[in-house]
Prior knowledge:
Oligomer: heterodimer
Distance between the termini of chain B: 45 Å
Order of helices and strands of chain A: EHEHEHEHHEHEHEEEEHEEHEHEHH
CATH architecture of chain B: 3-Layer(aba) Sandwich
Helix content of chain B: 40-55%
Largest interface: A-B, 46 and 48 residues
CATH topology of chain B: Rossmann fold
Radius of gyration of chain B: 19 Å
Strand order of the largest sheet of chain A: 3-2-4-5-7-6-12
Order of helices and strands of chain B: HHEHHHEHEEEHHEHEHHH
CATH superfamily of the largest domain in chain A: Thiamin diphosphate (ThDP)-binding fold, Pyr/PP domains
Largest sheet of chain B: 5 strands, parallel
Number of domains of chain B: 1
Number of domains of chain A: 2
Helix content of chain A: 25-40%
Number of helices of chain B: 12
Strand content of chain A: 15-25%
Structural class of chain B: alpha/beta
Shape of chain A: globular
CATH topology of the largest domain in chain A: Rossmann fold
Amino acid sequence: MSKMNMAQAVNNAIFLEMERDPDVLLLGEDVGAPGGVLGVTQGLYAKFGAKRVIDTPISESAILGAGVGAAAVGLRPIVEIMFCDFIGVAMDQLFNQAAKMRYMFGGKAQIPLVMRSMCGAGLRAAAQHSQSLESWFMHIPGIKVVMPSTPSDAKGLLISSIRDNNPVVFLEHKALYGVEGEVPDEAYTIPLGKAEIKREGKDVTVVATAMMVSRSLSAAEKLSADGISVEVVDPRTLSPLDEETILNSVRKTHRLVIVHEEVKFAGSGAEIAALVAEKAFDYLDAPIQRVAAPFCPVPFSPVLEDEYIPSEAKIIAAVKKAVRK
Amino acid sequence: MSANREQMISMYSTMLRIRHFEEKVEELVFAAKAPGFCHLYIGEEAIAAGACATLRDTDYITSTHRGHGHLIAKGGDLKLMMAELLGKKTGYCKGKGGSMHIADLDLGILGANGIVGGGPPIAVGAALAAQYKGTDNVCVAFFGDGASNQGTVHEGMNLASVLKLPVVFVAEYNAYGEFTCQADHQCIESITERAQGYHIPGISIDGNDVMAVFEAASEAVGRARQGKGPTVVECKTYRIKGHYVGDPQVYRSEADVKSWQTEDKDPILRFKKQLIGKKILSKKEVEDLDDSIRKEIETAVRFAEESPYPETKDLLTDVYAG
């Protein structure tokens, strides 16, 4: 075990997989010699060289496309789309090419590609560098969507993603990079599609992702002082979604609050709410609550951005509404 | 490098195979036997035949929505192609892809592509893998004048140039981007002008002259194999058929089309005349070849027609790899 922050955990996962498998390579803007725009890929270039850690032009379509083509013929590329907001100029290579090749070609192609990308608000980076877009990716059959909330999850999930034979979108919340945790030193995997109960409780289920997990845990701690026992479930993988863990938790607590940072309208929480309404409606004792960003772009001014990101107070209020206290 | 006798006959056969295949596909679409959208390669056969004649099975191609010709030239199985076009379970993609999504990874065919300009970035990736693994395999990216306006093509060219990747960008200048003529969709006369912007050598040739295509492609493929990076080979041709089967083609006159179907311009008639003139094939041999290729196509159609459709239970298979 070592204490690592999430950036180091991501770096460590890439390092170990590149060391283990010569078919793994990393491509992206400034991922090589500069070590990444926020330093996440530092040291990889020095260790593995320019052949395996490739600095590319600012060309998201070419970066992703190169990953798709290389994966189609047998490599296991990790491509970095620096900020997930930048996927807009390259979406075709992800959703029309990578995601569909296996199906379109009758199961004869396999695209073991990881697209790492930073998401999330909180760094005063405004509307084009702060979004959470996980529901965009969830909507596309053929890709998997992973969103870790802790350093140890990030490492195990990234190793699984690299070893997976499908395109995986791996979303790293930039405000979590500096958050530390205990991380096993060896290479290990956390299965994709498996949620984790981060805190057990009996009165209400809170399903939260990425930065909202720690915020929900902190809210849960405060709520316990009011006698409310909160169970916090982190799906960790949004596609495939671990329906059973969520449903079982709701069957136990009879109440559901969903917390995510992307906008509420047509967000990932809508899917989770629909899942519970379809499959566990009879277990619900209260309407489902969603705590999420409002339907506007991510604002710049700290005053506005802080209002935009779901706060602990809003989570507490939603839980109290769900338990009617 | 010039093509030898054997290669010339092989290229002629490929061109003929594409022409007869496409004529049959048109018939099947009009007979409502081949569902969906079909884009025919008639008139452009010399490009696929000439370029793919310079490739090995281990080389890669990326194709386009007008992809049947590329697939046939790279060795695609006519029966599996025809079955796919008819939406049959025995098709290349088990009926899940159709005309615009046929691939054969074992032959290095990384797929036709329904997205104009979708292929070149993927070609760059295949070439990156070829270089990474230390092979001298190359990838040919076919795309049209229409696609040359897509950012993906520009990004692909730039990345291939920067990393010196073994890609041959074969620009099929067929004079139309869907319904819009070339002069109305770009202000350049040759796509090789765009190659200059990426410091890539570009050559523009008569794309209806299969020998010229073969020579230019040989040189470009040779450069790529030697690690000298990408080349743009522009092949000027003419799309004889509409954008898709059934296109009313109100944007051009019949006379324009006819002017490209003469003995001097049609790539197959031209090459046939050359082959007979040079006594590489006799008239009888040309006729026999024609007959045997028609029979191949008929066999493929029969295979396709007699094949079963997919079962509805197959709907959800192959979304993810295990």
